[in-house]
Amino acid sequence: MKQEPEFVYPEWDAPANVRALTTTRIGGYSKPPFDSFNFSLKSGDGVEVVRRNRMLLVDSADLPSEPVWLRQVHGNQVIDAATSAPYTEADGSYTLRAGVVCVVLTADCCPVFLCDRQGSRVAVLHAGWRGLARGVIEEGVRRLGVPGTELMAWLGPAIGPTAFEVGDDVCHAFSKQDVDVTSSFVKKPDGKWLADIYLLATQYLNTVGVHDVVANNFCTVGNQDRFFSYRRDGQCGHMASVIWLDHDAAV
After folding, report:
1. Residues 6+ away with beta carbon under 8 Å from 182
2. How far apart are CA 120 and CA 100, in angstroms?
3. What does the mean pLDDT of the chain come to?
4. Whether the predicted pLDDT of 151 surpasses 60
5. Tens digit of pLDDT for each residue in 96-126?
6. Distance between CA 103 and CA 142 in Å, rounded?
7. Which residues partner with 123 through β-bridges?
8. Where is pLDDT greater, at 96 or 191?
9. pTM beyond 0.90
């Protein structure tokens, strides 16, 4: 018997009309290795199964509309979900319009949720290390059109700091940035590095004025029963992180 979908909700002080959640792998129709609540059409899962999962998300999470799905490329493009076509190439979306659902897919990368204190605008970003180094957070904040001090952020389920092993190439990608992120990397005896993607995202948010940041500190790699993880499994499904405005809000 199929389990009911399970969601992770932000633990932040967002206005009541800001609604957000991240799915888990629990509750959908996909078969192994995509079991069972997979939302990625590029994973190798059946197209019709993924579509059933997507409709189940709309119904079970009481979404006001189908999310505006993206074609993610680990870049820094952030689009207006209210005016963009589905499957636009981007790694984040925002909206100022009630009823429009923004979404990103992840399976170790960090979903970064943003909203303003008035509940008039929201965004969600796909922040892997490439996206962070390429400025997806800076672009997301810029597109929201208010100072970072007016925003709050929640960091959804991502790979944890003891599981994210990277090479010198990743460290070098960040060494070229203006942001000092040396504290996000710990050198291992074998010459590899452990990277803290939660801390990286927080440091980039702080740099653009967003200091009200809450991280859940889950580890997708270490929670096999709840989360998909590309680093752990290779071929796998993807979770969906969605955010929307529940009713009209003054801008």
Report:
1. none
2. 12
3. 94
4. yes
5. 999 999 999 999 999 999 999 999 999 999 9
6. 18
7. 94, 114
8. 96
9. yes
Domains of the chain: 7-159+208-245 (3.60.140.10)
DSSP labels, the chain: -PPPP-EE---S---TTEEEEEE-S-SSSPPTTS-S----TTSSS-HHHHHHHHHHHHHHTT-SS--B-EE--SS---EETTTSPTTEE-SEEEESSTT--EEEEESSSEEEEEEETTSS-EEEEEE-HHHHHHTHHHHHHHHHTS-GGGEEEEE-S---TTT-EE-HHHHHHHHTSSS--GGGEEE-TTS-EEE-HHHHHHHHHHHTT--EEEE----TTT-TTT---HHHHSS---EEEEEEESS----
**C-alpha 224: how far from its chain's center?**
18
Amino acid 216: pLDDT: 83
Q: How many CB atoms lie within 10 A of CB 146?
A: 16
| pLDDT mean over 154-166 | 97
For residue 169, how many other CB atoms are within 10 A of its CB? 8
| pLDDT number for residue 248 | 53
Average pLDDT over residues 199-225: 95
Residue 39 CA to residue 37 CA, distance in Å, equals 7
